[in-house]
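Dissemination and training. As part of the outreach component of the grant, students in the summer workshop were shown how a complex can be specified as a set of sequence lines and then modelled as a single object. The example used during the hands-on session is reproduced here so that future cohorts can follow it. Participants entered these lines:
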Amino acid sequence: MCGIVGLHLRTPDLYPRLGELLTGMLCEMGERGSDSAGVAVYGDPVWTPPGRGCVSVLEVTPTAEAIELDVSIVRLGDTYLVTAEASSGELLDAVKAAYPQALIAGFGADMAVLKGVGHPRELTDGWGLTKAQGWQGVGHTRMATESAVTPAGCHPYAVGPEQCMVHNGSFANHATIRRELRAAGVQFDSENDTEVGARFIAEQLAHGRDVEAALKELCAVFDGFYTLLVSNRDSFAVVRDAIACKPAVIAETDDWVAMGSEYRALAGLPGVESAKIWEPEPEVIYAWNR
Amino acid sequence: MEPVTATVSTFDLRTTPLREVNAALHKPDLSGEFVIANPDGAHNVAVGVDAPVKVTVDGHVGYYAAGMNQQAEITIDGNAGTGVAENMMSGTVWVKGSASQSAGATAHGGLLVIEGDAAARCGISMKGVDIVVGGNVGHMSAFMAQAGRLVVRGNAGEALGDSIYEARIYVRGDVASLGADCVAKPMRSEHHEELEYLLKAAGFEGDDTAAYTRYGSARNLYHFHVDNTSSY
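and obtained this result:
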């Protein structure tokens, strides 16, 4: 099981409602698994002020004094959002230097990644997600299969700058690919299968491939079941494996594009009654850009 | 003229729990017409009905809608999720939109009409149901089909009729590939008649039956073949 949702807003009129809409979508999917949940929110002016580098951190209690840069820290549930007048890369290095044992949930300008163990309703309440704003959000509610119920096992996996991936399904050959990536110098935070997919995509993007090419390569290399939602600061892409047994529904209007594991996650979106709604075809990559 | 006895009862799924709605549809000696409003993608809407009633679901439904149907005429005025009309025994299930995977799975009888597209595994393990799809069907449709008829007015995805036992498949458009032991067969007069009857039942009577190809079992998997000894 697991449930995934994503909302890519086209009209700024809806930016103030991003958190409210994303909360409704994610909590509706709680019946598909609710041992952990996570979201990535792109563009909240309070959580990730424009122009500042941002790093989302778990499993440590960071303080401004311990980090070399002049940082601001906001705590949301178990996640700490660290921002500074610096690039996200510089900030990430500074946070890692101060807290080598920290779990980095995500990093990049304008992107806050929040995750934790618990029911999505309790977690989203704790984050105050309904008040969040922005242009894009993704979410995941988990029924653990491949790895432990810990913050490191929660989605999203946001392992490249401003990138984020959520996954419904399970990769069968993740251990083999993890060994290959480790041999190539890639570091991992968990034994989770999705993390391997996310780091594989990040490697592809780091080598200059675009999202579409990276996802095609993933389809060729990874074995298993998956519906994936891959986002970065300005884009949003969906792909399913060839067997396509993991569900997905996409809906599109002039004002937004939304994806959910099931239609009911989308049923509360404004204007959904006139949306174009379809089920993505296996191994076809659907992508939208801002 | 028959006396007008129809009473229409409306259930709003935003205010009435699904279990109450389904329990009301399971009452003994049920008759009349029912409307289910605001399904909002809920699962298990109007499952297990066993009465000669009309049920209209006004919107999109989630998984297993109208499953196990007997006798009832159930119309879904929207899209349906996984397993619509699964294990139907008799009656009619009519989807005005498109259906997700495994539509009509294991169904023994009745008629399932999907006006739009059906996704993967449409009619998987069908056991006697008739399915008419207005658009395309996805991969592995009629997988292990045992009896019944599947009509596809559009195209079929990969591995159509894989490991089919019996059942007749009619496809007007392209077939991406045929599954194991599924082959094209000639359209004899009884097949034109059967197809015409099914298309008419589903409201597509204008179609030229000569534009369709029939597919079915080559029956090569029915018996063990000694050449395959090394495969086991």
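The CA atoms of residues 180 and 186 of chain A lie 9 Å apart. Students were then asked to discuss how this feature might be tested experimentally.
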